[in-house]
């Protein structure tokens, strides 16, 4: 009985936390997307209305009404999730370190290391290692980033021999928008086995990186942050 009481109290405490999180997400999304409430509500009404109308036509309004309610709730959740994600990417886009935050949520099977190369202009290269090989994700000025990417590839080639892909975040030609970085990475062909990925990670870790020499905050870096003089850091 004591365990059941603790479980019930834990569930009761968790539910307000989830509701509070949803409410906070909605408020943040509404700032960037003022129509999110109307759109989500409209989707729910349309889905429920269509299923209910079909129910009346076939003579089962109660069954189709219940199904319509469930599907409407699901559709609303999907639409809200997508618009919330789009709003979050919109707020992060253009901020130094935004790509690092995206890489942290790529999914299982990827080992990410933020800021493996950086220069005084805050152009940054992040690294992710998975079964597709190594993916270097760069954000900043495209012209300066090419130099950073070339230097990082040359440095890695000394210790690993695996496929290397590079992504420059942006909306220009040949660049990948921030909200499509994860999708682009997941579409890459898997050419390495698990042990090969582990070996590559171990060798890259032994090589060291910028983060092991200079602590940086996780997520987007402050725009006012100044880099030490002396040019590129690797």
From TrEMBL:
Transmembrane annotation, as ranges: 36-56, 62-81
Claim: Transmembrane helix is one of the keywords in the record: yes
Domain of life (superkingdom): Bacteria
Keyword Transmembrane helix among record annotations: yes
Pfam families given in the database record: DUF4191
Matching InterPro entries: DUF4191
Keywords tagged on the record: Membrane, Transmembrane, Transmembrane helix
Residue span of region Disordered: 211-234
Protein name per Swiss-Prot or TrEMBL: DUF4191 domain-containing protein
């Amino acid at each position: 009985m004591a365990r059941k009481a603790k479980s019930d109290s834990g569930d009761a405490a968790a539910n307000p936390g989830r509701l509070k999180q949803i409410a906070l997400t909605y408020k943040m999304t509404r700032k960037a997307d003022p129509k999110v409430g109307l759109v989500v509500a409209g989707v729910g009404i349309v889905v429920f209305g269509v299923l209910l109308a079909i129910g009346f036509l076939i003579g089962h309004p109660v069954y189709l009404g219940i199904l319509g309610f469930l599907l409407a709730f699901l559709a609303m959740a999907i639409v809200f999730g997508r618009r919330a994600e789009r709003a979050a990417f919109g707020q992060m886009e253009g901020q130094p370190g935004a790509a690092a935050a995206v890489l942290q949520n790529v999914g299982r099977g990827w080992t990410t290391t933020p800021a493996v190369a950086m220069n005084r202009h805050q152009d940054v290269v992040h690294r992710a290692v998975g079964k597709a090989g190594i993916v270097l994700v760069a954000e900043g000025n495209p012209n300066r980033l090419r130099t950073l990417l070339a230097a990082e590839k040359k440095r890695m080639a000394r210790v690993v021999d695996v496929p290397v892909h590079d992504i420059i975040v942006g909306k220009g030609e040949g660049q990948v928008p921030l909200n499509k970085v994860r999708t682009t990475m997941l579409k890459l062909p898997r050419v390495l086995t698990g042990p090969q990925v582990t070996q590559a990670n171990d060798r890259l870790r032994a090589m060291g990186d910028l983060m092991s020499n200079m602590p940086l905050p996780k997520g987007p870096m402050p725009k006012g942050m100044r880099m030490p003089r002396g040019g590129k850091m690797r």
